[in-house]
């Protein structure tokens, strides 16, 4: 296996052939995805960094990797011994990628990138940063493809249709709704590249990306046609027939690039610049009117309809049963120190599959002690820790069910704790409870509510370098926008989306102390309507996630009366909803650990 520095040397040789001075490699694919199949992990290949978010920039003498606070510890370790310099995003004195390009690139230089795997928005940000400089762009061939000799093939699985008893709406109904949005935007043609949007629109699921039940494809919509560009040979006759009945035609995956070029004279084309490949937009006719807006499907699918909401409650009940069975096994294990993080993860997956999960919603994070300080730590057969009868074990996990997607984190005490650990755990619990109990007026945004969660942690002079929560798909991607709790003002208008009944967002504050421990508690929250009075319509959150919270680390004297009441009410609900799915011994134990504080 070649080293990272050897791969850099090979890439620089390809750059020299094409007259490229700097080559930029964002984390992504042809569809603007966050989670990638192995074929598209070019950033990981060239840098060795295994996180899900980052950008690589390679020059003749420099190699840099940008990533966010979730991955600082992980990236520092993985880049060690290579030429790469870690650029810690949002930290003082660290330029953004566009700022670095503006500062460092010189007149006459060439910036290269793969136009298929770079979104329109990224390329436009780079161009804007370089305005006034004589720097040229070259969105040509995939240079890393020439270097990556053992690159895995792109995966294409057999798709299936998600029953309308789960989705609540047919593909034809959804397509008609999107066409109405196209008319409002003044568009005659709409290209959709994002895989979760396509899956939602067509009620289509598959296994083309690990943990994300999506189909590799593109959609072109007009008033008359709906075309899915995919690998047609992977579709069974039943799925082909069902899609045809919904007005959907199948064409080959690679034909999308010529479809853009054949859009027609002066075509009015709608696409999402954050999800559409630069090459696709660049292939449109020169006189095409480019209407760049968030995909209508993105805003539609983040609001779950009543049928989906009921299905989600059932999927979370099943997931809660799996979690309690796993916790009971772990807490009653005769020798927990004989278990590894991988053993813990594998048993939890077994419990989920027994409850009907057909896949995990992401790779389970089972992190003992200091490992949990890395927010996206992942145990591997060559790098894992054993469970200890002291400190914290953090487990972040989720399942894919036909009736929903789950995402839950619990931090459990495996033995004696320090006063500091207890105080930090209690602060995280208070943060979690405060956001979950929020009552707010219609028109409020996630940005507006984030302080409720962050307040108890900020009171300690501590912060967590990530959002407080993210949207979750329905039998889809575990990360779904545009809703998500953040304290920093979003850079784009859609980041200020108003909360609506039907939106599902996680509540997951935490504290991460490098070299010591990580603490996170996470539930999924469903926004629902509350009272209406002279002040307007109020909303609140319903906890979808059903799982006990470890009370042994809690300093109950630090909980306010309303926080105690919220915790006790939640635990009472957990017991009532889950007990029928448990054995008598498990149910008795659950009743004991959910007793009021």
Q: Determine and state the CATH class of the largest domain.
A: Alpha Beta
Kindly state the percentage of residues in helix.
25-40%
CATH architecture of the largest domain: Alpha-Beta Complex
Arithmetic mean of pLDDT: 96
Give a count of the beta strands, DSSP E runs of length 2 or more: 28
CATH superfamily of the largest domain: Creatinase/methionine aminopeptidase superfamily
CATH fold-level name of the largest domain: Creatine Amidinohydrolase
* Individual helix count: 19
Number of domains: 3
Largest sheet: 6 strands, mixed
Roughly what fraction of the amino acids lie in strands?
15-25%
Radius of gyration: 24 Å
Assembly type: single chain
Structural class assignment: alpha+beta
Apparent shape: globular
Low-confidence stretches: none
Distance between the termini: 56 Å
Strands side by side in the biggest sheet: 4-3-2-1-5-6
Q: Can you walk me through this structure?
A:
The protein has 597 residues and is an alpha+beta fold. The protein has 19 helices and 28 strands. It folds into three domains: 4-147, Creatine Amidinohydrolase, Chain A, domain 1, CATH 3.40.350.10; 160-301, Creatinase/prolidase N-terminal domain (Creatine Amidinohydrolase, Chain A, domain 1, 3-Layer(aba) Sandwich); 306-593, Creatine Amidinohydrolase. The strands form eight sheets. The protein has a six-stranded mixed sheet. It has a six-stranded mixed sheet with strand order 12-11-10-8-13-14. A four-stranded antiparallel sheet has the order 21-28-27-24. Strand 18 and strand 19 (404-405) form a beta hairpin. Helix 14 (306-331) crosses helix 15 (341-354). The longest helix is centred in the middle third of the chain and has 26 residues, at 306-331.
């Amino acid at each position: 296996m070649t080293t990272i520095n050897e791969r850099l040397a090979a890439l620089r040789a390809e750059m020299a052939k094409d007259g490229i001075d700097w080559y930029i490699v964002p984390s992504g694919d042809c569809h603007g995805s966050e989670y990638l199949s192995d074929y598209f992990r070019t950033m990981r290949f060239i840098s060795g960094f295994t996180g899900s978010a980052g950008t690589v920039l390679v020059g003749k003498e420099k190699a840099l990797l940008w990533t966010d606070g979730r991955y600082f510890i992980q990236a520092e370790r993985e880049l060690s011994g290579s030429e790469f310099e870690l650029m810690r995003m949002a930290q003082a004195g660290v330029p953004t990628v566009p700022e670095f390009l503006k500062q460092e690139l010189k007149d006459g230089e060439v910036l290269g990138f793969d136009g298929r795997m770079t979104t329109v928005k990224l390329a436009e940000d780079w161009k804007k940063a370089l305005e006034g400089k004589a720097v040229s762009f070259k969105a040509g061939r995939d240079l890393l493809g020439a270097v990556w000799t053992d690159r895995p093939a792109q995966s294409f699985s057999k798709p299936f249709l998600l029953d309308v008893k789960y989705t609540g709406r047919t593909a034809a109904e959804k397509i008609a709704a999107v066409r109405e949005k196209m008319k409002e935007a003044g568009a005659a043609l709409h290209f959709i590249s994002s895989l979760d949007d396509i899956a939602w629109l067509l009620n289509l699921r598959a296994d083309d990306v690990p943990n994300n039940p999506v189909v590799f494809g593109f959609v072109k919509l007009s008033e008359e046609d709906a075309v899915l560009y995919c690998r047609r040979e992977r579709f069974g006759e039943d799925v082909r027939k069902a899609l045809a009945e919904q007005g959907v035609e199948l064409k080959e995956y690679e034909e999308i690039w010529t479809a853009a070029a054949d859009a027609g004279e002066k075509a009015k084309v709608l696409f999402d610049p954050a999800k559409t490949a630069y090459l696709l937009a660049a292939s449109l006719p020169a006189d095409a009117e480019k209407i760049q807006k968030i995909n209508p499907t993105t805003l539609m699918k983040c609001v779950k309809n009543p049928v989906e909401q009921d299905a989600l409650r059932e999927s979370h009940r099943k997931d809660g049963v799996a979690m309690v069975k796993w916790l009971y096994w772990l807490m009653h294990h005769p020798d927990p120190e004989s278990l590894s993080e991988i053993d813990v993860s594998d048993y939890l997956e077994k419990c989920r599959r027994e409850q009907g999960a057909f896949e995990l919603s992401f790779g389970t994070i089972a992190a003992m002690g200091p490992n949990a300080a890395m927010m996206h730590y992942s145990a591997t057969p060559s790098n894992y820790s054993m469970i200890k009868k002291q400190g914290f074990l953090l487990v972040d996990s989720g399942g894919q069910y036909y009736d929903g997607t789950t995402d839950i984190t619990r931090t459990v005490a495996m033995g004696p704790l320090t006063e500091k650990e207890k105080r930090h755990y209690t602060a995280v619990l208070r943060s979690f409870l405060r956001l979950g109990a929020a009552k707010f007026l219609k028109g409020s945004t996630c940005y507006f509510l984030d302080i409720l969660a962050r307040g108890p942690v900020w009171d300690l002079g501590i912060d967590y370098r990530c959002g407080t929560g993210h949207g979750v798909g329905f039998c889809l991607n575990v990360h779904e926008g545009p809703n998500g709790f953040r304290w920093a003002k979003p850079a784009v208008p859609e980041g200020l989306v108003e909360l609506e009944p039907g939106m599902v967002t996680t509540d997951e504050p935490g504290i991460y102390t490098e070299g010591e421990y990580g603490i996170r508690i996470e539930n999924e929250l469903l926004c629902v309507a509350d009272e209406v009075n002279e002040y307007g319509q109020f909303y609140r959150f319903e906890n979808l996630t059903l799982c006990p919270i470890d009370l042994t680390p809690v300093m109950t004297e630090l909980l306010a009366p309303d926080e105690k009441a919220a915790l006790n009410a939640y635990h009472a609900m957990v017991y009532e909803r889950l007990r029928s799915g448990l054995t008598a011994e498990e149910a008795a134990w659950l009743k004991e650990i959910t007793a009021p504080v």
